[in-house]
Amino acid sequence: MAFDFEKPITELENKIKELEKYAHKNKLDLKTEISFLEKKVKDKKAEIYSDLTPWQRVEIARYIKRPTAKEYIAALFEDFVELKGDRLYSDDNAIIGGIAMFKGRPVTVIGNQRGMDTKDNIARNFGMAHPDGYRKALRLMKQAEKFKRPVICFIDTKGAYPGKAAEERGQSESIARNLVEMAGLTVPVISIVIGEGGSGGALALGVCNKLYMLENSTYSVISPEGAASILFKDASLKEIAAESLKITADDLLELGVSDGTISEPAGGAHQDKTFVFNEIETVLVDALGDLRKLNGDELVEQRYEKYMAIGQYEE
Predict the structure, then answer these.
(1) Number of Cβ within a 10 Å radius of residue 59
(2) What's the predicted TM-score (pTM) here?
(3) 45 and 116: one domain?
(4) Quick one: 255 and 207 in the same domain?
(5) Is 202 exposed, middle or buried (0-12, 13-18, 19+ CB in 10 A)?
(6) Are 163 and 172 in contact (CB under 8 A)?
(7) Which chain positions lie within coiled-coil regions (predicted)?
(8) What is the pLDDT along the chain (315 residues), one digit of tens a residue?
(9) Is residue 314 part of a domain?
(10) CB-based contacts of 229: which residues, under 8 Å, 6+ apart?
């Protein structure tokens, strides 16, 4: 088990293992007792996962074993060809992208790529991109527009890299340019938040016609720890900040930021990756089917109306 809130489940599963070992060693029939405990595990899972707090969802969204953009690309698309470099400075491993086939049609796929272990995380800069990464993403988007390919983005980052080198190379400008250029793309743009969608680093891949979120993903202008540090002068109050920020898939669907929530198995996407791959595939088929009915001008107008409607409320 990965999380503190799963401790009651872990204890029950350990008891089951002990009973099975004891029954085997002493040649006893304890199937009734084991079945009773297995039912308790099932009931406890249903109880815990049906009522997760925003902070608990943050923990799941950040989990190291959660599927990465690279895994989604491999599972959902065929003939993926990765394209590297921003044609200005370098290639950024924190963002991957390229051309692929989806259901027999060419698409451009781009994603924040965090590491799958410590070594990989260092190589990927923990999924936090430099300006080079955002310029690479924009280069691929403009290429997609030229050849009339839909753009599909997978968002999974704590935010843009805040280091000195990134600022010197124009971090703010690169993100701002992505926002402007994405708003005017004349091809369908679909973004899916698969883990943590943090700040402008996430928004640089998030100006789209359709935005979807995995059930345990988050999307926010700032991390709960960062918000707690600013608002409460105490990062340990992150759970209160997570509640206030309204960062969960349910919150953002209700607020009109997200266009839909994609189901995950109990415990998170890492528990059954095939299930999540199939769920995303279904969403992509439906979304692309709807967006292909619109011409370039209509796609731009639909995108504009989507973002203009966010934050409008009537009493």
Answers:
(1) 19
(2) 0.90
(3) no
(4) yes
(5) buried
(6) no
(7) 9-47
(8) 468 888 888 888 888 888 888 888 888 888 888 888 888 888 877 778 878 999 999 999 999 999 999 999 999 999 999 999 999 999 999 999 999 999 999 999 999 999 988 899 999 999 999 999 999 999 999 999 999 999 999 999 999 999 999 999 999 999 999 999 999 999 999 999 999 999 999 999 999 999 999 999 999 999 999 999 999 999 899 999 999 999 999 999 999 999 999 999 988 999 899 999 999 999 999 999 999 999 999 999 999 999 999 886 666
(9) no
(10) 235
Element (H, E) at 152: strand 151-157
The Cα–Cα gap between 32 and 181 comes to: 63
Residues 161 and 247 placed together within one structural domain of the fold: yes
Residue 313: what pLDDT?
66
Distance CA 137, CA 122 (A): 20
**Residue tagged 């936090």 (tokens):** 128
Distance between first and last Cα of the chain: 45
> Are 213 and 106 in the same domain?
yes
Orientation angle between helical segments 69-76 and 273-291, nearest 10 degrees: 70
| Together in a domain, 249 and 167 | yes
CB-CB neighbours of 190 under 10 Å: 21
Q: Which amino acid is at 194?
A: I
Are both 28 and 115 inside the same structural domain? no
Judge if 11 and 65 occupy the same domain: no
Do residue 150 and residue 178 come from a single domain?
yes
| Amino acid, single-letter form, for residue 236 | S
The tokens describing 287, both together, are 């979304």
The Cα 154–Cα 167 span in angstroms is 24
